[in-house]
User: What shape does this take?
Amino acid sequence: MNRLNRDTLIAVILLLLVGFFMYSSFSIKTPVFEKLAPGQMDPGFWPRIILTGLAIMGLIYLFQSIVTPPPPAEKRGGLIGWYRHYKNPIWCFVVFAIFLTIIPILGMLIAGLLFVFALMTMLGPKDKAAFKRHSWTTMGTVGGMWFIFACLLEVQLPKGQYTGLFDEWLLVNVCGIVSTIGEIFADAAPSCSALLASV
Assistant: This one.
């Protein structure tokens, strides 16, 4: 077995943090929540799903760090060399911090669209065709996730201080159309079942 290295240490710390957060997720459900939303899904369910994924990735990271330890640290030319080496992760954290800052202002949907598009543009190619791909991918992924959580699961996503009316309009119109289509199918289901039974 290889000696302890920095990746092994980081993996162990990450797994300990995941364990702590997993333990904490069981205390999210409070008597106040039970009173306001009786019979609703446990508020710790989604955090535990994410933490389970993080735990699996942390275990893979730990295994890799033991089997194939990182090479000895090379000299990177001081602070400038260090920045060049870690430029992408640094800017990912900066963009994520900006995203968290603008959620209360622009809401989850618009802030999410800007966040994903900014990351794809920063990390990927920057030609005209790439911008088009980034735009479509952003709208498909973020819009799809918004639709699933806001309309299908009826999760109350953060609304923006300046975009609250737009967020409400989307909820009423987009989710209203989905609800209407669902009601049509629900009304038609007994008739279809009776028709199939008579054939």
Observations:
- The chain has two domains: 1-73, 79-158.
- The mean pLDDT is 81.
